[in-house]
Records
---
Amino acid sequence: MMQKAIGSPRKIFLIATEPSGDHLGAALMKELHRRFGNEIEFAGIGGREMEEQGIVSLFPIGDLAIVGFTAVVRQLPMLLRRIREAVSAIVQAKPDVLVIIDSPDFTHRVAKKVRKIASSIPIVDYVSPTIWAWRPGRARAMARYVDHVLAVLPFEPEEHRKLGGPACTYIGHPLIERLDTLRPDAQERQRRDGSPPVLVLLPGSRRGEVRHHMPVFGEALAALREQGVVVEAVLPTLPHLVDAVNAAVAQWPVRPRIVTGEVEKRAAFRNARAALAKSGTVTLELALAGVPMVTLYRGTAMEAWVARRVVRVSSIILANLVIGENVIPEFHQEECTAQNLAPALLNILDDTPQRRRQLEAFAKLDRIMDTGARSPSEAAADVVISVMEKARQK
């Protein structure tokens, strides 16, 4: 039986709960608008960028900015209420396809319930959960409620294949669309090689990360100064964190220049000789910018206990995983001390074998992450359209 008339407008329901997902969703919507014009309708949950593309969000995505095991537990009642609201809206809308974007603590719970109630709605997952790092059984479980995964990391399709996951296509990481904003021009390269060297500090983009990481950042800078090392420290942050960051650096012996916003952050990357960064996507951003780094992560005692028992990769640094080699040093929990960080930073501020090894590895990324002539949003739209049209013809 044909589910929908082939000539009727396509209806897509999208869910994104964080700014990064909102950016991906908006780019996908823009590309689908370009192809279908007014013959496409959007509904769902998203932020400012998706709203600019036409979505009226079911509720503010700030409600769902939940990261970490303990945070999920604390906010579980609200999370369950929002899941019920999302499922109800999807089932009522009867979309041609549901696109869930990252944030698996929320989006996958929604997808499972939608599959049970309205099994004919195809589901595309944009950004794979980290099945390659922990809980590999999620891949096989996903195959029961996700029809296709859009992978932003080149090794993920093979991981899903090995683990029995859903169909998975590498579409490219959104960072590869913004390489020109990450890489220095001739003048910026002169500053990168100049003196004093620019050291970018990246403690994280959430209040808990700032609280956990800022003290050791200050201690590492103090240790460098005690050894006679002069740096120009730049700390990019977000507007809502400026007060917390200013309070944290008030007693530092070396005061960084604090900048806000994406434009200022990328300008700092283009000038930077090295970086001290919290683990996360920013490590891949720095690697693509050609900035050698030292990485760290401090979490709660509970998060550390869980991680030691479930993480199944040799590195938690995204850039290391994409490169396939642990070239970037990383210090976690009790290893995250100024006594460890300062010597590691010295090794990448100077022209050393450690610095050259990182730069040589970063030079491979363009080839490793290449998607040909198509942008990630174009490749994502190809898959979404294919899944949607296949379902419309049943």
---
Amino acid sequence: MGFETIAEAAGVHLRIPEGTQYSFYDSPYVGHRNTTAIDIYFKNNEALLPVDEAKVKEIRWFNAPKYRVNGWDKEPLTLLDLGGNKVLKVLHVNPKVSVGEKLHLGDFFGECIVSGYLCPWSDSHAHFEIRPSKDPYRARGAFTLNIAPTIRKIKGTVCSSPRVFTVVEMGKYYMWVRPKGITNYLTALAVKVGNSLGYVDAGIPHYGLGGILLKDKVKASIGDAIYWDFMHLGYVTKTYPLSLLFIAPIEVFANSIKVRGIGTYINGKFLKVIFTDPTGEKPWKEGDEVKIKVMVSS
């Protein structure tokens, strides 16, 4: 199994099996707004250690909300000692290790659960933060991630994504659709910000804010408009060296039918289209062609 480096912070490199899907910004939680957290969508929900080595320092459970009927009412938190007064904080993983156990890169250490914190359309994943060992628990205060290793994965020229997709999988709360005619991309949605092109890593508009990963140093300013093809997608709200945050005050339509929103993961070849009413009849089926349209809310 080959591993790729996707980010680093405080001298600690995060590595995952090649091709594994992950996200910095497709989440409503504060760590993802600050580029201090990452969600990794491991194959078969088997959480693997994403650092060279660590020692299990602490495992605790706390009460969780229940944003979905099948969500766990207890949330596991695992702290892994990285040495040098740093820890790796892990959420949404039912640990299969014991305090004091030493782990190495790629070691299985638990199963990603259906956390009560996840929305009904969310996929199970492991949430990671690299933190000072004296401040391991809070939502804020983790080390900022340098995402340059992910940016280097962008090959060639980034082209704006098409608006026509093919349905590849239907679920209860969402469907996966594949962009037609695009084979070289970091996520399934590329957009234009000023004179720059970048990849959307976000769930919009349902999470409020999202992120865009840019191949070159950010030249955008707060308030700049973002366009997908000729459609106005949103506005820049904050900039980082290689990414930006944006708000998308939009309504989304799939073949003229309004949906809740769209989402993307890094290394993901498909766009997630989230249904407005998961209990209603779905007018799409696998193999259908779907045209996605966004309109700024009035």
---
Amino acid sequence: MADTILSDREVRQYSRQIMLPEIGIGGQEKLKKASVLVVGAGGLGCPVLQYLAAAGIGHLAIAEFDTVSEANLQRQVLYGSEDIGKLKSIIATKRIEHLNTLVRTERINIRIDASNSLKIFGEYDMIVDTTDNLNTRYIISDTCVILGKPMIHGAIYKYEGQVSVFNYRGGPTYRCFNPAVAEGEYTNPEPSKVGLFGVLPGITGTIMANEVIKIITGLGSILSGRMLLFNILDYSFNIIEIPVIPENQRITKLYDHY
């Protein structure tokens, strides 16, 4: 195909996706041109990275500083027993490159915080939040507001998942959904202390990847201003509306702690 930036191999590899009239060659070209940063390569990050790579995202960056532990293997499907003790960023990058050699990967082996997020995030079209740290989520959200980047968010708890898109075309930010509280007032237990159903991150992360692909290709309705909540025990799915709080869209400074 002379009039496309896609190689013959890319056209063959992504043929089933290109066949969809809503995507076509044009949509696949948008995916190839896109640059996406995934913050975290744990339970949510693993499926997000796999499906974005398989879809043909041109530039896929992984920000992760942790190492693989035995307790990760139940749900973090990019890793195996032989990876215990190794850096997740290195192992995840190798797995993604094995999955799709057409995707350019980038490894960022540092903790994202207020001292580096503005510099790092500025290079990418959108940011995917797969973290389980509340303070980091606020930093990601505020950085996206300052830089004007969409933030694709997901979170999990026992058998429940949630997905939304923040800071998208004037929509609400993460703070609009979850206002910061004084230190010590956040009382929800961490997932490591209450348990987690192994398939839940896979389901949630796949939905997050779906939102990324939809934003890039202009396909369907985006979860901006809405939070998808679901429970995989009873298959209940609900969407709640998230109002815009204008002051959260006018953030100009980052803080180390919230």
---
Amino acid sequence: MYKKTVFILILCFTPIGLRAENKFLTLERAVEEVLASNPDVQAVHYRTAAAKARIPQAKALEDPQIGIMFEDVPRDTIRVNQAEQIDYRVEQKIPFPGKRHTRGKASRFESEAVSESSRGKIRDILLDLKETYYTLYRLDRSVEVNRKNQSLLRELAGATESSYATGKTTADAPIKAQLELTKLKNEEMIFQRDTITHKTHLKALLNQTSHEDFLLPEKISWPRLNKTLDELVSLSLQKRPEIKTMEALQKKDRSQLTAARQSLIPDFSLGFQYGQRPMSKDTWSGTAMINLPIFFWSKNRGQIQEAKASLKATELEKESMQIHGQHDIQQAYSSYEAAQKILITYEKEILPQARANMETARMAYTTKKVDFLTVMDAVRSYHDFQMSYFESQANVGTSFAQLERLVGIDLNDSREKL
């Protein structure tokens, strides 16, 4: 009872505007939820943590070996304490100075590569989220326009039926009105089908159950780009996860090449032995061993050649990625610029003219100055232009999101309501 009372009080004193706003899923909130609860995002964080945990392993010493030896145990017994000599041994392999440091560097650079690769995967998920979000917004607005045009056509269809009943128009006018209305109904069903598909995908990204639902705002903030093409290309060279991954892999390959060359340098092995002598004094002894890499022509030389080839391949892959990345950024930048220009044209010229043309045709039809087909063409044109306008809006958001993915950082310096 106490919890219910508190809930009611909170609900009553919460501003109505705030409650209404919370029911809408903004893009910012969607991004926060994906970063917080998406399983794939959480998985890449664990992959990064696992890679970092390998660094101290790589530069650690090998485990020491300890043992005991029983010598000269009488053959008629298995009691080892009757041995004439018992030796206790410990042995440790010590690599040549610098080898552990090189292994640690290689592991650290590999961890950096995994971290940058993980950042790229998160960017892929965010790109998928934003593209799906903008598509859903376009579908919502398209359904809204479709239903308004259906209402208008029903009004016109009613007028044509009345005119036909009084002999003021031909029989094809109401038939064409109904045909156009049927086309809009079919279009609405397609929009609703696509909306369900994209909503389901968005719920999966948000890690929500299928029965949960959400609404998108009627107006959303659209990104504004305040950087030039050259600035974007420069940023991508510094920030793009794939390029940072290749840079880390280059450093790892260089470290592995150093390690391959260091394999020509011998390692050491130190040992200590304590012997118990029942019939005499206890003894101790020490050993110092060094390995001899005398088979370098088949083993060590092959390691060096492999490391050199791997480093060269990584350098070429990075160079190719930079070239293709610049072309991709230029293409996405051009798409964004074109979509922005198209939006301005629609807002300032096409949509106002199309709407005025439709209203003029409707008024002229009521005074019998034009036929029904003229009104239909005006309504259809305005409908098509509105659909293209919302598609251009979505293209602005999508191309901007693609630029963010290619550069590797958020670029939304400012947003505006469209």
